[in-house]
Amino acid sequence: MKAMVYYGEGDIRVADRQVPVILEPTDAIIRMTKTTICGTDLGIWKGKNPEIAAVAVQKSGKFDGRILGHEGIGIIEETGSAVKKFKKGDKVIISCVSRCGTCENCQKQLYAHCQNEGGWIMGYMIDGTQAEFVRTPFADTSLYLLPPDLNEDVAVLLSDALPTAHEIGVQNGDIKPGDTVAIVGAGPVGMSCILTAQLYSPSQIIAVDMDANRLAMAKEVGATHLVNSAKEDAIERILELTNGRGVDCAIEAVGLEQTWNICQHVVKEGGHLANVGVHGKSVNFALEKLWIKNLTITTGLVCANTTGMLMKTCCSGRLPMEKLATHHFRFSDIEKAYDVFKHAADEKAMKVIVDFGG
Fold first, then answer.
1. Is-contact 135 22, C-beta < 8 A?
2. What is this structure's pTM?
3. What is the spatial distance between Cα 194 and Cα 170, in angstroms, rounded to a whole number?
4. 319 vs 151: CA distance, rounded Å
5. In the chain, which residue ranges form alpha helices assigned H by DSSP?
6. Contact by Cβ (8 Å): 89, 74
7. What does the pLDDT look like over 193-219, one tens digit per residue?
């Protein structure tokens, strides 16, 4: 089969790989129909996760590359003997988090840290979804039947972007009716934060980005105020919009020191700073200013425990997620898709959908 494979920093390419097989009775093999490219995949490409190769070498003595991707939908080709909820031919959404459902952490719904070699593993510790076929561990607890009336582009976003935004951004940020919210970074996850924040009726949603095109989309999907941080001081502008108080919740959705810095300086006393962005480097933590403000600062990896609820909400039309699917490519053009997503600002790309269809 064909797959997009990471071989090391700066080296990803389409390669021929063996079709995966059932390794555990809880596995399923899925023929992929759609996948997408996540900002995390770009980070791996840039060398942000050297542990991928290090862990592989530690386990087997060699690293033959890793198939990327942790989002997508497909059709079940085969199931292990212990799989009870799914059968061959079922159309499913693949969660970015694999969970055994029985360990101590899974019993606490801390699925991101499944102790039985689950959590975020696909496209990271094991081969992922940017291939014609994928092996999914813990199928009964890590797959969702694809509703027939759900837009398939939206279904792909339910793998990761939407639950990540909702759980690590909106829920951790404790957004309540009437709250003021600043979302710093209007990429796919930031945009999903804007959409899911509206489920909790905040009074202001301030979107911050350097890209005018993304800010225009943020306005279209529900932001009440826009701040272009390339043209104005974002901290000053957010404070101005909130009468000098700051926001009840700031969501960092990029993973850079500049965006973190905006967030830590615009949260008012008693507020929440929810970090969603993946940080590859240390940032300055202005504790000398923050210690007195009674803040709650959260981090996290998505547990995907709200995916089912979000799927129902998408089916009802409450979340117009299809607006985020701006570019479509055939899998044969996945290298071009990566190039477009890498240059998202120039290409006006939000979410790139890769189709395996015949």
1. yes
2. 0.95
3. 9
4. 11
5. 39-45, 51-60, 104-107, 139-142, 152-157, 161-164, 188-197, 212-221, 234-241, 257-264, 287-290, 307-315, 334-342, 344-347
6. no
7. 999 999 999 999 999 999 999 999 999
